[in-house]
Amino acid sequence: MIARPKSRRGARVCRDHSEGACDGANENAVLSQRERPYSNWRESQALENNFHEILFVTEQINVLKALLREMKKGDYSLSWFGDSTEEQNNKDVLDEEMLSLVNYILKKLREDQIQKADYALKSAGASIIEAGTSESYKNDKAKLYWHGIGFLNYEMPPDIILQPDVHPGKCWAFPGSQGHTLIKLSRKIVPTAVTMEHISEKISPSGNISSAPKEFSVYGISKECKGEEIFLGQFTYNKQDATIQTFELQHTVSELLLCVKLKILSNWGHSKYTCLYRFRVHGNPGAHT
């Protein structure tokens, strides 16, 4: 489900920018309102397609359950396979049909829900620039001790947010409710959207996700990650919504960028730390990296 960024008052978004930049933001807001009907139609089509896909997969799962029940009973009904009289052939066909069905369902479950290239993916070459990243939260419970001396640290490093393995505890934590990280993308792109992902309360060991990020802003960094910060948008991650939320950037750039800075402005109430699970950056790649 794609979460749309909440509207912001011009004074808040532009408080750190010039009057000309604010005028540009207002013009973009007007254009955004004009494009909203088309955007809503596009989202509606995507939701409808996803709904039909879910119905189809559900139907296939029900067929698989029926096949498994038949296997458990040892009753291989010939109605599945027409007029064949060879019991072994029936069993082979059943095994082949079941294997094909299982593979199809597993493939669907493994497919990425966003269907957008992630240029902040570590395995594709993206990385965290530690010099532009907040300190990690220090937790003594995440250490192993021998005779009172801590010798092994199980704290997750910042680049865990660039990896798709999202399970409880596999997140980067920083102290308090505000922090930032600088990401070097896998290649230069014109960024168009970002995605924030967190675990749900249902699978959280504590039963809540108060350490989840709430308000955050995104900046592009010009001149090979050493130039000025270019404001791309400010958003709110809604913990009551889907665990994976995509946000279209509020401000566009024409130049190719290699680095993006993520600034967390608040969390959902945790007083000690904020935990980030995964952050993605989407956009249009340049012809050359």
Brief summary of the model shown:
This protein has 289 residues and is α+β, with helices and mostly antiparallel strands. The chain has 4 helices and 11 strands.
3D structure, described in words:
The chain is an alpha+beta fold. It is built from four helices and eleven strands; from the N terminus they run αααββββββαβββββ. The protein has helices at residues 10-13, 19-73, 87-110, 222-225; strands at 127-129, 143-146, 149-153, 172-175, 179-197, 215-221, 229-236, 244-248, 257-264, 273-276, 278-285. Strands 1, 5, 6, 7, 8, 9 and 11 form a seven-stranded antiparallel β-sheet that branches. It has a two-stranded antiparallel ribbon with strand order 2-3. A two-stranded antiparallel sheet has the order 4-10. Strand 2 (143-146) and strand 3 form a beta hairpin. Helix 2 (19-73) runs antiparallel to helix 3 (87-110).
List the helices and strands and how they pair.
Blueprint: H1 10-13, H2 19-73, H3 87-110, E1 127-129, E2 143-146, E3 149-153, E4 172-175, E5 179-197, E6 215-221, H4 222-225, E7 229-236, E8 244-248, E9 257-264, E10 273-276, E11 278-285
Helix pairs in contact: 2-3
Structure keywords:
alpha+beta, seven-stranded antiparallel sheet, 30% helix, globular, disordered N terminus
Q: Give the uncertain stretches in residue-range form.
A: 1-32, 76-81, 143-153
Instruction: Classify the helix fraction into a percent range.
Output: 25-40%
The biggest beta sheet is recorded as:
7 strands, antiparallel
How many H/I helical runs? Answer: 4
Shape: globular
Report the radius of gyration as a whole number of Å: 24 Å
Q: What oligomeric arrangement do these chains adopt? A: single chain
Beta content: 25-35%
Average pLDDT works out at: 77
What is the rounded distance between the termini? 31 Å
